[in-house]
Amino acid sequence: MTDASQRDRQEFGTDLTEVRHEPLASPWGLRLYVVILCCFPFAFILFTLWWVTTDSYLRHIPFPYIADTGYGSRLEHADCDVVIDGDSTALVGVLPRIIEQHTGLKTCNIAEVAGIKMLNGMMVLDDYLAHNRRPKYLIFVFAPENLNPPAQWAFVSDFEGWFYRIRFHRDARFWRNTLHNPDDTIANAELAFRNGVQWLPKSPLPPALANERDLNGGHVSESGATLTRCSGDTVYRKPDSAWLSSLRNTYGVDGTHVLINVTPMPPCDEGLPFYRAHLAGLTDNAVDTLPIDNYTNSGRLHTNDAGTAEFSERIANQLVAAMNSGTQRGGM
Hints:
By secondary structure, the protein is of the alpha/beta class. 48% of the residues lie in helices and 6% in strands.
């Protein structure tokens, strides 16, 4: 044995030239590690799909409109005389209490943010009608660019639509879409999990906010700063008269009178002339305006308390006129 080999054997327990056999740690341990590594993403998704359906997930959500997503889908025997549906401009812009004060008619606001309608169409309204007496008046309120089928609206995050669907309609169609669009499912599950973890340390919403929709007939207040200038973000989209007619024909039955209203715009909105020209005769109200300080900067045509009160009074006066005349466009 050479001096070098002897030193190697003394230092390493073997010659450097010898074939070494690594000790075989438990092969089952290695396989278990690989299995866990491969299964973790699927377990994470399945856990999140379950978690978002629980009340514990909702408890710390800091946004009332998400915490009470699907308000209209959970109402049973509310039997409102007036039902407000539409996009987020209706959700924050129409206060049922004001309509009730002017008309004496019980009013519910079941509008939701755009993402819910983009993904699920009129599902919330259909749920409401399935579990409640048909209203005397059904009023659709949309931003002027949204007088088209919701699937054609300008893209916004579909998280709210996915969140609504998994909480209220985990049916075969939902699971087929989940399997056919795994990228969307993974992205929404990841966002839901991340949001849940961020929200978990927060204190629960105070009762006045957690139950805001119940306390205010479905209305959600807007807390953004007052709008000071028009931003030029108007989307120019012609209305779909066939879709508007389908709303009247589909829902204006069995004594329900349908009104389709467009949300007022600030006078400085660049799209005002365009929509006045293209919506003439298609909606039950005119393309009207509200002062710019009646809006917030937190959403397209989202009104603050002053704007909501004024817009709600206009709708109430519209209803009073319809009740007094005994006639109504659509659904008669």
